[in-house]
Amino acid sequence: MTDKKTETQPAALDNMRIWSQVDKTDPDNTKKVDLGYKFTAIDAYTQIQRATELWGPVGIGWGWNAPVFKAYECLLVCEVCLWYMEGDKVGNIHVVEAAKLKMGDKPDDNAHKKTLTGAITKGLSYLGFNADVFLGRFDDNKYIQERKAECAKEKGHATDNRPAKKPVDELADAKRAVAAVYKKYGVGKDEALKMLSDNYDQPVREFSVEKMKAAVQVLEQMFIDKGLEPVEDDEDFGGL
Fold it and tell me: Are the C-beta atoms of residues 117 and 44 closer than 8 Å to each other?
């Protein structure tokens, strides 16, 4: 009896595999713009950052070819091909974007930059980047508030997972610095603190952070004025 081999069918390709990872927008990365018509502008560099997270550095995992610019009276047109890597395959998106050549009566020096940035944004949008903005979801204040809450929760969770940083105790650091000075000159703690107290006419325990920091140099100068020199650490010289 011959055993039949079970053929494994390839898993269905998820056509939304990119879209579903990049379609939601953090409201903090947008701003409302009114140029006679209202729209939501997206911070282009947050898109570039997200694309880099997804595919790798620009020029290696994704990017665009050399743009072609054409001027037509008052308009500058940019034609560019956006590309990205999917395994050993390359995806290509051809995009055309236009911008005005003048701002009022003056030439717009940023026209080329604007059209290229706009073309990159448009190309990424075809893959689903910030789709909720392009689909008009940001016209709904309720949706925006929901996204703000979701993003705040995500950011808070990310923060909670980071190792807690120890608080900086400046007063303790200054006290250690003072101790290092009187040990350096071979002076006892009680004598050194009395010198500081007499100098400032105030008990050292009542020193502020700033006064304790200043006391480091003051104490060393007092030792120098008394003709003291730094003592050698016996351990550093093999016990001699």
Answer: yes
pLDDT digits over 197-238, tens only? 888 888 998 888 888 888 888 898 888 888 888 886 544 333
Tens of pLDDT, residue by residue over 32-65, are 888 888 899 999 999 999 999 999 999 999 999 9
Whether 118 and 38 map to the same domain: the answer is yes
**What are the backbone dihedrals phi and psi of residue 128, each rounded to the nearest 5 degrees, phi first?**
110, -5
Among candidates 39, 42, 5, which has minimal Cα distance to 26?
42
Query: Up-side HSE of residue 67: CA atoms within 13 Å toward CB?
Result: 21
Reading the block at residue 113, the tokens are 């930059």
**CA 79 – CA 94 distance, rounded (Å):** 7
Distance of CA 144 to the CA centre of its chain: 23
Q: Is residue 4 part of a domain?
A: no
Q: Which of the listed residues 139, 159, 179 is the one where a domain comes to its end?
A: 159
**Beta carbons of 118 and 78 less than 8 angstroms apart:** yes
In the structure encoding, which two tokens stand for residue 180, read together?
Answer: 């290092």
Please give the tally of structural domains in the chain.
Answer: 2
Task: Report residue 176 CA to chain centroid gap.
Answer: 34
Residue with tokens 């694309």: 51
Q: How far apart are CA 177 and CA 106, in angstroms?
A: 61
- Asked whether the whole model's pTM tops 0.90, one would answer no
Residue-by-residue DSSP string for 199-221: HHTS-GGG--HHHHHHHHHHHHH
Query: CA 126 to CA 113: how far, in whole Å?
Result: 20
| Sole residue written with tokens 């004598």 | 191
